[in-house]
């Protein structure tokens, strides 16, 4: 944005007589646009569930913990590109919350160490470090305290990235977390196909996905991130479009689709057709596999 402002200022300087006034006008307009865009992005950021929020929802709906749904252990020292690190940090943050919510101490400790190692690779040691691990160790038997510590740490990481103008990394952090969250949810649904509550969580991602795409496509990425993560995520919209929206007469407040926008209301519910859940799981699994085989 700043380069654009400077470039326009130079154009006006050499093409107009009343140069300074028009330069100021352009800068003010551009600054206003930047403020509006930043506010919109901030709204989108906070509309996407955090890893903790996602995993709490999943546990509340009753499925048992499945270690097989965790992201495979990899050699972190082989990862050099910051965007790759941020994406994986989001993925493992969801796994960390998933293990912690189910009180799986071994998995929680292993994932925490990986998250700390990843944070070091993108200069976040001041946010999450051995001191964080010590705090969690001291509260290992107090799930509520652990939730607060891990949730606060995730948002501190996110805020630190954005405050240092690493907005692309912050977006990938959120994107990676959402990918793994949907993978776990759809995986649990495949394991327990009769669990309607999990279906509802996945159906709600239809709306979250739209916000995620608005966020993820606002920044520039490496070609492999674009090809193997962003583009397939955009294509996932075709799958979510298969979810039918049915009007219902209910006093329960839900999210409604009206005039091509989603609003809070009490008029609709989402219905899966046969095979929709498996298709969503297949598509998100492919994106997750791309992280393993094409990104890392």
Model description:
There is one protein chain. 69% of the residues lie in helices and 6% in strands. It is mainly alpha-helical and 296 residues long. It has 2 domains: 1-44; 52-295, no CATH class. The strands form 2 sheets. It has a two-stranded antiparallel sheet with strand order 1-4. Strands 2-3 form a two-stranded antiparallel ribbon. Strand 2 (254-258) and strand 3 form a beta hairpin. Helix 4 packs antiparallel against helix 5 and helix 9 crosses helix 10. It is globular, with a radius of gyration of 21 Å. Residues 1-37 and 260-267 have low confidence and may be disordered.
Can you give the helix content as a percent range?
A: 55-70%
Q: Please list the strands of the largest sheet in the order they lie side by side.
A: 1-4
Using only C-alpha atoms, the radius of gyration works out to 21 Å
Number of helices: 11
Number of domains: 2
Order of helices and strands: HHHHHHHHHHEEEEH
Describe the main β-sheet briefly: 2 strands, antiparallel
Number of strands: 4
Give structural attributes.
4 strands, 69% helix, 296 residues, single chain, 11 helices, globular, two-stranded antiparallel sheet, disordered N terminus
What order do the helices and strands come in, and which of them pair?
Layout: H1 2-15, H2 19-47, H3 51-60, H4 82-101, H5 105-121, H6 130-138, H7 143-163, H8 167-191, H9 196-216, H10 223-240, E1 244-247, E2 254-258, E3 261-265, E4 268-271, H11 276-295
Antiparallel strand pairs: 1-4, 2-3
Helix pairs in contact: 1-2, 2-9, 3-4, 3-8, 4-5, 4-7, 4-8, 7-8, 8-9, 8-11, 9-10, 10-11
């Amino acid at each position: 944005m700043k380069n654009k402002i400077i470039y326009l200022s130079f154009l006006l300087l050499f093409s107009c007589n009343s140069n300074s006034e028009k330069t100021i006008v352009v800068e003010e307009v551009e600054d206003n646009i930047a403020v509006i865009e930043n506010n919109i992005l901030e709204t989108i950021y906070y509309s996407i569930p955090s890893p903790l929020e996602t995993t709490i929802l999943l546990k509340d709906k009753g499925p048992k913990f499945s270690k097989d749904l965790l992201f495979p252990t990899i050699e972190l020292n082989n990862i050099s590109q910051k965007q790759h690190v941020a994406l994986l940090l989001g993925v493992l943050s969801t796994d960390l919350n998933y293990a912690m919510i189910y009180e799986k101490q071994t998995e929680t400790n292993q994932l925490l160490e990986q998250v700390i190692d990843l944070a070091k690779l993108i200069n976040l040691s001041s946010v999450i470090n051995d001191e964080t691990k010590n705090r969690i160790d001291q509260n290992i038997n107090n799930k509520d305290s652990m939730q607060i510590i891990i949730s606060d740490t995730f948002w501190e990481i996110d805020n630190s990235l954005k405050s240092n103008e690493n907005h692309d990394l912050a977006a990938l952090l959120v994107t990676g977390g959402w990918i793994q969250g949907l993978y776990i949810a759809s995986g649990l649904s495949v394991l327990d196909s009769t669990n309607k509550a999990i279906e509802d969580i996945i159906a709600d991602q239809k709306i979250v996905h739209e916000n995620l795409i608005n966020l993820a496509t606002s920044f520039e990425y490496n070609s492999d991130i674009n090809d193997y993560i962003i583009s397939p995520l955009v294509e996932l919209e075709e799958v979510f479009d298969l979810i039918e929206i049915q009007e219902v007469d209910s006093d329960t407040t839900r999210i409604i689709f009206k005039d091509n926008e989603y609003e809070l209301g009490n008029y609709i519910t989402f219905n899966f057709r046969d095979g929709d859940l498996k298709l969503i799981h297949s598509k998100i699994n492919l994106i997750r596999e791309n992280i393993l085989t094409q990104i890392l």
